[in-house]
Recover the amino acids of this structure.
């Protein structure tokens, strides 16, 4: 009888330990690993964009089709490309430049504790200003698709 | 049933239950596990960290090679380049693919982690068609996706940098700590720049980028002969030259021979003849209308 109780206790502990992992992985949690990407209505860059998803945001995997993942985020279902997602939340960090746009002031790392680092990076200020301009060069996927289709005529 | 026989049965039941947990986990992980196949998982850095490396390197390069001030040309190059990237195997990076023509007559291009790509006006000017320019940009996109620049970071520096990049610098408040990190970050950028400008990628890396570029061109509706045409242009311009681009890349003739040996349309590929249609010709000429020739 004593052995039976021990076995049952062991079984209970195993179930208890498995349950959280099982629950979480059954839900298929994934995280956004790009600065920002729109949730799409279909598995294509040119599908209609729904709400934007931000870096670090958690989504739930529902199914997949090729490189596209059907997910649920904030109660809304849609599609995200695999390259925008990671299963490893632990690796998502703020980092030195985080998700902010670069500015010449950003070169001078904020705070008096970074004075020496500021001087080190200041020599590249003009380069980072040019880089800031590049951040505005994103072309909407619909225009990219139209560009390619026009060129096939 | 005796206790002696009950214990193994219960143990078996527990093991089956545990295995059930593991099996369920495996079923779910089939969807998640496919993420490990995406190129972003292969460099050891997260996409956000690759962006940091790319920005640091690009900032330094742009201090040396200023941006070429031609908004129409830059919009055209970004439209073409981003369209190609959209049809590649890694269409998204942390900050997206961005292209900039830089004011240098040298024939060269620099593909930074995170999808930041600089192309000299010397290289743009060497292109005779949109298909040839597409081949150039596809090759650079392939370098980004193959993580070639990251591979150039010295191993010891990379190991320490990878460990540091996860920390919140605001919390690491000591000035020396921040300076050390920034020095390692700019040191990593120096490693990448030295490879891009002086030593070049390995022959295998360049040939792998050529092969990937052919895939990108085909996926985007461009004939792969645009790459062979561009290589022939570069071969002609490189006669007797052994510096700059010609010191950091395998000879165009070598690259052509390798691609022709593997491409299924090898005969047509080696010919390198590409006749862009009227739409592509018109917009190519319009984009380069203000571009100085020669």
């Amino acid at each position: 009888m004593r052995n039976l109780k021990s076995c049952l206790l062991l079984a209970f502990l195993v179930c208890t330990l498995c349950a959280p992992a099982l629950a979480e992985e059954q839900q298929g949690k994934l995280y956004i690993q790009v600065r920002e990407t729109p949730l799409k209505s279909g598995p294509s860059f040119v599908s209609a964009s729904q709400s934007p998803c931000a870096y670090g945001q958690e989504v739930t995997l529902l199914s997949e089709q090729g490189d596209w993942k059907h997910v649920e985020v904030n109660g809304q279902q849609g599609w995200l490309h695999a390259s925008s997602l990671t299963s490893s939340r632990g690796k998502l960090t703020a980092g030195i430049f985080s998700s902010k746009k670069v500015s010449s002031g950003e070169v001078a790392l904020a705070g008096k504790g970074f004075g020496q680092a500021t001087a080190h990076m200041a020599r590249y200020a003009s380069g980072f200003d040019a880089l800031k301009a590049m951040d505005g060069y994103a072309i909407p996927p619909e225009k990219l698709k139209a560009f390619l289709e026009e060129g096939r005529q | 049933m005796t206790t002696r026989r009950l214990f193994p049965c219960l143990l078996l039941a527990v093991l089956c239950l545990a295995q059930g947990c593991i099996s369920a986990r495996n079923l779910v992980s089939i969807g998640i596990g496919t993420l490990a196949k995406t190129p972003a998982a292969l460099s050891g850095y997260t996409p956000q960290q690759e962006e940091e490396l790319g920005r640091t390197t690009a900032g330094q390069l742009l201090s040396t090679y200023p941006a070429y001030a031609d908004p129409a040309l830059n919009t055209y190059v970004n439209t073409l380049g981003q369209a190609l990237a959209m049809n590649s195997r890694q269409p998204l990076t942390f900050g997206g693919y961005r292209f900039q023509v830089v004011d240098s007559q040298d024939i060269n291009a620099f593909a930074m982690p995170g999808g930041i790509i600089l192309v000299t006006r010397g290289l743009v000017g060497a292109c005779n068609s949109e298909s040839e320019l597409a081949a150039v940009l596809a090759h650079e996109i392939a370098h980004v996706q193959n993580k070639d620049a990251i591979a150039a970071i010295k191993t010891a520096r990379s190991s320490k940098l990878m460990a540091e990049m996860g920390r919140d610098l605001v919390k690491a408040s000591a000035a020396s700590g921040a300076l050390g990190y920034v020095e390692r970050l700019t040191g990593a950028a120096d490693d990448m720049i030295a490879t891009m400008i002086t030593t070049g990628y390995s022959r295998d890396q360049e040939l792998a980028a050529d092969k990937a570029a052919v895939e990108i061109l085909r996926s985007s509706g461009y004939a792969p002969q645009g790459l062979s045409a561009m290589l022939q242009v570069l071969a002609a311009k490189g006669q007797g030259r052994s510096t700059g681009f010609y010191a950091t890349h395998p000879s165009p003739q070598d690259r052509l021979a390798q691609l022709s040996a593997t491409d299924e349309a090898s005969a047509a590929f080696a010919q390198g003849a590409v006749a862009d249609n009227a739409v592509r010709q018109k917009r190519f000429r319009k984009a380069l209308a203000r571009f100085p020739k020669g």
User: Anything to note?
Assistant: The first strand of chain B starts at residue 98 and ends at 102.
